[in-house]
Amino acid sequence: MPGEPINPTRQYRLHNRQMNAESVDNRQFYSMLIVLLLVVASIALLSGCEQTPWLPPPGFVGDPAQGELLFDARCVSCHGPGARGTVQGPPLVHEVYRPSHHADLAFHMAVKSGVKAHHWQYGDMPPQEGFTPEQVGHIAAWVRKEQRRAGIE
Q1: Theoretical Cys-Cys bridge with 147: which of 59, 86, 132, 152, CB 3.0 to 4.6 Å?
Q2: Which of 41-50, 56-65, 97-106 comes out lowest in average pLDDT?
Q3: Across the chain, how many H-helices and E-strands are there?
Q4: What is the rounded distance in angstroms from the CA atom of residue 139 to the CA atom of residue 62?
């Protein structure tokens, strides 16, 4: 009966196996140990995850004018004037970075975590320190404006 104390002299049946009180106690102990280990492992895994993405707040609208200033101050050395690329970094005003292939989220991920080279032979882009999600949103808005001016939709 559930909740009934285990009688050390009584024999128990579990999954058609005859068990005494000691083996029932051991089985309960190991079951609880496994559950405890799973809970601890889950907490450890989840504590390493960001709970919210690194994005501007809901309703944020990027300002291309601010984005251009930020780009010129922080990104132009690799991505070039007008985001046309250099020998150090790829052009962002390019079909490869059109919105249907690289959503604005890609800009946020690239700045926050870096990017492994996969379209070009420039090498990996390291994470970029000192940006806020809003600043990256402004830069993305400016890049999208430049792409539209170049006929990239």
Answers
A1: 152
A2: 41-50
A3: 5, 2
A4: 8
